[in-house]
Amino acid sequence: MNANLHLWLIPLLPFAGFLINGILGRRLPKRIVTTVALLAPLAAFVVVLLAANSVFSYAYTVCKGCTLTTGSIFLPYVETCPLPWINAGLLHIDFSFVLDQLSLVMLLVVTGVGFLIHVYSVGYMSDDEGYARYFSYLNLFLFFMTVLVLAGNALMMFFGWEGVGLASYLLIGFYFQKKSAADAGKKAFIVNRIGDFGFLIAMFLLVANFGTLTFSEIGARLGANPAWQGGVLTIIGLCLLLGAAGKSAQLPLYIWLPDAMEGPTPVSALIHAATMVTAGVYMVARTHIIFDHSPFALGVVATVGALTALFAATIALVQNDIKRVLAYSTISQLGYMFLGCGVAAYSAAIFHLMTHAFFKALLFLAAGAVIHSLGGEQDLRKMGGLWRKLPITFAVTTAGVLAIAGIWPFAGFFSKDAILYAAFLQGTSGKILWFVGVLTALLTAFYMFRLWYLTFLGEARSPQGHTHESPWSMRGPLLILAALSVCGGWIGIERFSGFLVPSVGARVAETGSAHLEFILTAVAVAVALVGWFIAHQFYKQKTELPAQLAAQYRRGYKLLAGKYFVDEFYGATVVKPLLGFSKLILEWVVDVGILGGAAWLLGGIATFAGAILQRWQSGNLRSYAAWLAAGAAAVLLFLMIPWATAIHFGWAGH
Amino acid sequence: MSSFLQQEVPLSWYLLLSAALFSLGVVGFLIKRNLITVFMSIELMLNGVNLSFVTFAHQWNAVKGQIFVFFVMMVAAAEAAVGLAIIIAVFRARATLAVDRIDRMKL
Questions:
Q1: Cβ separation of B99 and A619 shorter than 8 Å?
Q2: Taking the alpha carbons of A119, A125, A131, A133 in that order, is the dihedral positive or negative?
Q3: Chains A, B: CB contacts under 8 A, how many?
């Protein structure tokens, strides 16, 4: 007995909010705009909560060994629109929404954190001219994101995938009068296109090899053929990974995310930290069955994740813009999630996705509160000593920093530990991945505490004027997220992965012992504390030390501060040749040469013919009359000649 | 003699006359420089055609041809009225009736 969950409401409510605020927002009073903008995600969240309630009540009755009651549901629960979307030959694609354990967790995060960030935005954006436009975009994002999460087939997912890219583009370029913001939006969109290309190729390959894009059917086909390994599945996996790397800002496509910080800070929190960028991880977990059949693709996922985690963490060490530190930290944490996926610990990756959504949204929102109270200042070097002026922001940031650094008992500790433990159990290559992960954890603790010290402790390094705490609409979400950052991990990886098993499968090769687990945990926490200690030394005790080190290792410092010059490298190897090619071949040869030449030639012929025929139009009445007479005579003559008559009748069809 | 008088004028004679009148009209239209003469040439062409209409109407004992001629004469009268008015207007504007010099309409 399946209750009706009305999943379709989850995306459509935010979409209604988008339509109302997008079309009428300019003319509506601000109160109504706010109400609509907040009600839509809240209602969606409530629908998700009702669904979750049915799911958990089902689990409860099973635990007790009772029979099912009405109101309980089986997972996966599928909702399909009676009208098909595409029906072409053997290919059949429906509008179908699927609720299983994986999408339920993701939905709770997306709509829950999404709603909190909507509330926060009310305070943060209150003085902005584009208030209604902002909220309509934000609601649009929630629509696409929930479609992506609920999608029952790859094409639906791709629709949401492209849609969140659009919303991201619109919101990064929200201050479109600013050239850097408009450019950053374009950059995000174009870099994502490269990833989307991979996703598309993967879909074509899926259709060619499976004849369907529905996840459950693909899973059933692969489940029936356990011997089917590698081959085309590896190619599909790598193409999917390319798509995921674009959306989730992994090497080599991560370059758009730091620039995406041009958008309003709540947008960075919602889209570029908590939800959209985790879509790649979600997609890998959703298609895990393909990766499970291709160890090579899985290895590539793990390698990309580990490298990205380390790479982004090293850049974050020396950044001075508070939002950029957080952006590189996001890339690094996403690398952890890919590392988790790559060692087939999907539930650990999703666990980290969830806790990361809590503490990274918190950190971004707190950073937004700091920036807001300082009147738009984002440079860490000009902050300092804010803990006295912003006590609440200071407290919640502390919770977030402890969580991301992985210190017990904060949320990040549990999820990061779960990933590292899973990596360690993966043979020799797993040890290397584990080492990279631990090294990254050290760097993470260091740069997060660096941010913490520079922002809140010490003395103010520039006149800060009249700073004040944020309004309650901003403080409320901060406090809730702080609570989640503290408690979010307490559910524990065993129970969490036990819940997710039906969706992502159980991990095989669990050979660890409680003893080993304890040692690894101790190492992780020790490393985090070492990172804290170093940051304490650098930014509290001997504040002149960082500058000395930077001077001593100038080259290394420049390399990091310049973000390894990857942007410049891409500019020289991809953008410049492409622009040159466009300029030389497309503009001069094709556009000016071929197209322009053809237009010029046709125009020339017409002009030339006109110049000749112009003489006919002499304006002389008698010449016109003579031509008329000559024409009449010609027709007469034509009719009188016998063979011409034959032709004439031939034309008429006789 | 009487047999000669009783003989009808052959069809071809009428048609030849008609063609001759029409051709004279065409030639006059083409070579004359005065607008009024050109106008008269048009009348000549119309009447050349009228003659052939009447000829064939008589030949085939069909009254349609005769009726057509009345129509042509009526239209010609109207055309003469309008045409002469235009000629007067042109003369007032340009102080000439030379066809070759009334060529302001060309580009």
A1: no
A2: negative
A3: 27
